[in-house]
Amino acid sequence: MYPVDNRNIWINNHVNNANSHYDYKRKKLKKVIRDMVYENAAICDEISLTQEKILIVREECKFLTKKLKMFEPQLDASIASVNTTQVKKSTPRKKATTNGVTPKPRRPAAKHKKNIIEVQEPITSGNVTIYNLGEIVYDTPFYYSDCAIYPAGYYASRTYAHFRNIFSKCTYHCKVIKAGLSPRFEIMDHDKHFKVTGLSTDECHSHLISLINKLLGAEDLIPANRNGDRFFGLTLPPVRMKLQEAPESKFCTGYIPLELQPDNHESELKAESDPAVSFEGLHNTLNRFRSRH
């Protein structure tokens, strides 16, 4: 047995050692918390710097887009002037005769004929008139979707509300331009005061609808509802049936052909009264909205 004094010393040492253990843990936790606070502050600073860079890049993109729109008509004019310049043709050399007999001229090689779907007369359906069905491009999936084919060279026009005055009609020209692996879509008014290009029909159509909504004083009064293909006239039954008749349409693997059922045609024709694509449908919606308020 320990003496009384020695036992007290042992108890005090044991208690002090236990407190020192917890004190060590406390210091370690404080150090971890301090490091986490510093790391969190550094991450917040990095996020704020990244956000500032993103804002700067967005402003630069807007500025460059405005500059591009300013110079785009000049580029089109310069390209047109280059195409119209006449190139002097070199005079063909006379072929040598053999024993006084001139050889017969060879027939020129037959040029490769593009698979362009010609339209003898414009196709008119409601407010849409199709002038050219263009050429089906099937070797890249960006030239067709499940319910529409985007042929290169497609050209149509639609009558809709004017982007500056919704009470007057305006003729918009819709085009599908071949631009490499993916097409470029374009909507331009008859007077060439409005022109928008995009990578999809919905992008061009949404830009036009946003201008209409600004005139109405509301951002979402007339929703676009992904009606870009319909605005271009690509979902009209006569257009789809004409494109499906071309043999190249069989290679558009993601496209679902339109069946010969009158119900499908009627539903599509009813959809033509949507306020986002129809001048009459737009004003009917506005009249209903005014009567309610």
TrEMBL record:
InterPro entries: FYrich_C (IPR003889), FYrich_N (IPR003888), TBRG1 (IPR040092)
Keyword Manganese: no
Signal peptide positions on this chain: none
Biased composition annotated in UniProt, kind: Basic residues: 104-113
Cellular component, GO annotation: nucleus
BP GO annotations: regulation of cell cycle
Pfam families: FYRC, FYRN
Region named Disordered: 88-113
Annotated protein name in UniProt: Transforming growth factor beta regulator 1
Organism whose genome encodes this protein: Aphis craccivora (Cowpea aphid)
